[in-house]
Amino acid sequence: MHVRAATIKDAEGIAHVHVDTWRTTYLNIMSPAYLATLTYDIRKKLWQKHLSDKEKHIFVLENEQTEIVGFAACNQRPLEPHVGDLTSIYIIKEEQQKGYGRLLMKALFQTFNELGCEKVFVEVLVENDTRHLYEYFGAKIVEIDTMNLGTQELEFFIYKWDSVKNVLAQLA
Q1: Which ranges of the chain have pLDDT less than 50?
Q2: How deeply is 29 buried, as exposed, middle or buried, from its count of CB atoms within 10 A (0-12, 13-18, 19+)?
Q3: I want to staple 73 with a disulfide (CB 3.0 to 4.6 A). Which of 33, 58, 62, 157 is the partner?
Q4: Longest dimension (CA), the chain
Q5: Within a 10 A sphere around the Cβ of 78, how many other Cβ atoms?
Q6: What percent of the chain has a predicted confidence (pLDDT) above 70?
Q7: Cβ distance 37 to 51 under 8 Å?
Q8: Has UniProt tagged this entry with the keyword DNA-binding (predicted)?
Q9: pLDDT of residue 151
Q10: Do residues 82 and 14 touch, judged by C-beta distance below 8 A?
């Protein structure tokens, strides 16, 4: 597996991973009706927009056949220059639990370090077991909140890492 910076040409591959992982990860968390509304075309347009935004840093995880099997994204907070937001890490179900999340985390935290971020936040649904990846690398819950998605109210944790350098040392 190989991690690299994403380009605009990756929008379709990222869209497929995004839709497919939401349908597996959130199968018993989000309503089936909402998950059925997800389309590759809509997500492709979303990722084309994100990939054109110079403030967003997006990475893809490719297999040996150069197929995109995962992605991750982050950004620096515009009004808080020493704070970053980890906005997503998704890996297709067949490639999860193999250490590839660690590769994507490393790319993100190297980016945070280069941007001068000291702290990083991430929001994760309470029922999403993949949040344990963040806990493993030292993220601490600092707040619990809710959001509405379709007709559902979902609870999520806001995690924080206080030291980008400490996380990078763990990832080394």
Answers
A1: none
A2: middle
A3: 58
A4: 42
A5: 8
A6: 100
A7: no
A8: no
A9: 83
A10: no
The letter for the amino acid at 116 is G
Please give the pLDDT value at position 170. 94
Sign of CA dihedral 135, 139, 144, 145: negative
Continuous H helices in the chain: 11-25, 32-36, 40-52, 100-115, 131-136, 164-171
Residue carrying structure tokens 């839709």: 19
C-beta of residue 24 within 8 angstroms of C-beta of residue 78: no
What are the tokens at 52? 């054109």
* Tokens encoding 15: 């869209």
The per-residue pLDDT for 106 is 97
Which residues are within 8 A (CB) of 87 and not within 5 positions of it... i.e. 6 or more apart?
56, 73, 74, 75, 122
One-letter amino acid of 35: L
Per-residue pLDDT at 150: 79
